[in-house]
Amino acid sequence: MRRHILNPVVTAICLVLALSAPVRADEARAAELLDELQTPDLPNWKQVEEAIWAEWAKSGSPSMDLLLKRGREAVEAGAFDTAIAHLTALTDHAPDFAEGFNARAIAYFKAGLYGPAIADIARTLDLNPRHFGALTGLGAILEETGRYDAALEAVRAARAIHPHDPDLEEAEKRLELLTSGRTL
């Protein structure tokens, strides 16, 4: 009779373990979504973009996912030192997780630390060359530091990957004016 009682318990434990297993980004799925983003007149581009970000945020480790979550929350709260600490722990323990470096680049950028931000963007792009968010961030830093030609190049690279983002389109137009010597 005890055996009969244990079977549902064992089944429940196995189910919980299976459902709580770490999920790593599916690179093939992310590539499919990035290819879909190239579709002209894509009416659901925002949903495709969100699905890409969701794939990129999967580290494969619950602990690393928690560090990413805490780092992002700290950035949102304006606690950049805390964010950088969480995200540095993440990048130290998951050096092949591109989104960890991208998130830390954002924290560095918001803290006004452009050198470390650019270094993390470079690492992000080394790990994920199609990371339009990292390219967008690079363009923002270059524009803010007056390197308009390089900023335009970064924004165009991001738009080549994500042609539907209206913010990138606006940035490209603004940078075209700035590089031609005209004012806004």
Plain-language structure description:
The protein is built from ten helices and no strands. By secondary structure, the chain is mainly alpha-helical.
In summary, what is this structure?
The protein is built from ten helices and no strands. The protein is an all-alpha fold and 184 residues long.
| Strand element count | 0
What number is the mean pLDDT? 89
State the end-to-end CA separation. 81 Å
Structural class: mainly alpha
Please provide the ordered H/E string of secondary-structure elements. Answer: HHHHHHHHHH
Tell me the major beta sheet.
none
The share of residues in helices is over 70%
Shape: globular
Radius of gyration: 20 Å
Uncertain segments: 1-6, 10-23
Q: How many helices does DSSP assign? A: 10
Strand content: under 5%
